[in-house]
Amino acid sequence: MLSHVLPRLRREASREPEIARRLERWVGTPRAIGSERSRVVVPIGLRLEGGVVRLFTTFTALGTPTDITTDELTIEMFHPADADSAEFFRRRGS
Hints:
Blueprint lengths: L1 H12 L3 H11 L2 H5 L9 E5 L2 E11 L12 E7 L2 H11 L1
Antiparallel strand pairs: 1-2, 2-3
């Protein structure tokens, strides 16, 4: 997965020199190399109301290389990573 995502990360980080430097430092670590064989989805956990809600995130980039107005527009969405987390949000939505 890293080989699929890394070119985009580098392209987006090129706008921010500090972020680009940190990305290259991270890519050089054994952990980054090992992630190629790891899970495709890496959940995050948030402690909320006495429990842990697990989420994963997706990014959608809009635009085309010639469309300057949407070139940098990216939408990030968080999704429940397990049934308990989905139930947590269902209870709050009603």
